Amino acid sequence: MDTGPRDQNTAFPADFAWGVATSSHQVEGDTSDNQWAAWERRGKIKSKDCCGLACDWWRNAERDFDLAQSLGVNALRLSVEWSRIEPQPGVFDNQALKRYGEMLKALHQRGIRPFITLHHFTNPVWFEAKGAFLSRESVALFERYTRYVVTSLRDLCHDWVTFNEPNVYASLGYFLGEFPPGKKGRFMQAARVTRHLCLAHAAAYRTIHELQPQANVGWAQHYVVFKPRRPESKIDRWLCSFIQRRFNDNFSEGILSGTAPFPLNKFGESLPGVKGTCDYVGINYYSRLRVGFEPRSPKTLFFQISVPPHKPQGDAGIEVPYGEAYPQGLRLAVGHFTGFKKPIYILENGVPDRADRIRPWVIESTVDQMRGLLAEGVDLRGYFHWTLVDNFEWSEGWHLRFGLFELDPVTQKRTPRPSAQVYAKLIRETGVLVRVGS
Ligand code: BGC
Known about the structure:
Blueprint: H1 5-8, E1 17-21, H2 24-27, H3 35-41, H4 57-71, E2 75-79, H5 82-85, H6 94-109, E3 113-119, H7 125-129, H8 137-153, E4 159-164, H9 166-174, H10 187-211, E5 216-228, H11 234-248, H12 252-257, E6 281-293, E7 303-306, E8 324-325, H13 329-336, E9 344-348, H14 359-375, E10 380-385, E11 405-408, E12 413-416, H15 418-429
Parallel strand pairs: 1-2, 1-10, 2-3, 3-4, 4-5, 5-6, 6-9, 9-10
Antiparallel strand pairs: 6-7, 6-8, 11-12
Bound molecules: beta-D-glucopyranose (BGC).
């Protein structure tokens, strides 16, 4: 019997989306009108790096679309930058939309299916000044922006991601203080932000379907596998299950059940019109973390995240470990969201690994996990590796490198890491259909 690679991969449907993922602020360059650029101007990037030209996509995304095509991917996830499209409240920039239109056409010409994220962490500064998603007005403002974008780009895109990682946005911005606006321990504010994100998502979902009835609309939920640091400790176990629920189910439980985020649900608040507003569930999965109680750590709200040193892991962040590379966890992530009974896309997966020590293993093991899930009948529709070319990693700046290609941000030179060929080979072996000129 032929047990060659093609056979092993027959589990993958011919139209499986094999992609790479990015976001506007991290790749475009000169995105200076959003709250992340303001955060950088306040000296908050831990590496003190500047986003600057990033990967220079605003002028030349096509160079990287060629690289993506050379790997054989048939899908690419990018985000559109709200601060470019609506630089002032209610004032829209047609030139910006024209540029995104060109990018989408360039992708189609290369047989690559675009997935557009409408919000990937960045807000225009005017929106941030109004309180961003803490304010009730955010829901209508996001809906207006969505209407404008989708009206302009609907002929070129069918797959939409409303929000990237609303659970990360709310937790890191309002609870851990790692993201702008840098608030710590504001549990109620984080819950209110999540509530507005759910309402804004549902409004966007309806608007997109009104403009494009056949659209495929969902969002990207970040999922972390948490484990108690000392399994014998009751408090570590309690903390771990608390964080697991509050983080992994934040936002997604609103879409699943229509109930307002804890503790707002205890005060009689609800989420009208939110339940069931997705055509798929998008999962961003990277790592496993240990959670332990740490009484001497009020700065981290008495819990500490760690990774045992002997576990496989990529490069560490400047202040905290990035996480254990744990490809088996993909199964837990997918299992966690089966209650939706919707198709699943892995919208991000990757590892910070400048020297490409473990990335090839991460990619191969993750594809193995997907093969197993498909064989069991899981409706998995796509996988997007984060990322194609090293991009600007938020507070870590250029310190953490996720690219299949290494980038020198000064010369803009790209150099393939061995992983690029590993990924290309796996895609070739699945015999995936590349839809040239579609
Ligand atoms: C985010 C990306 C980020 C990646 C790697 C995800 O949580 O969506 O923007 O670069 O993780 O940390």
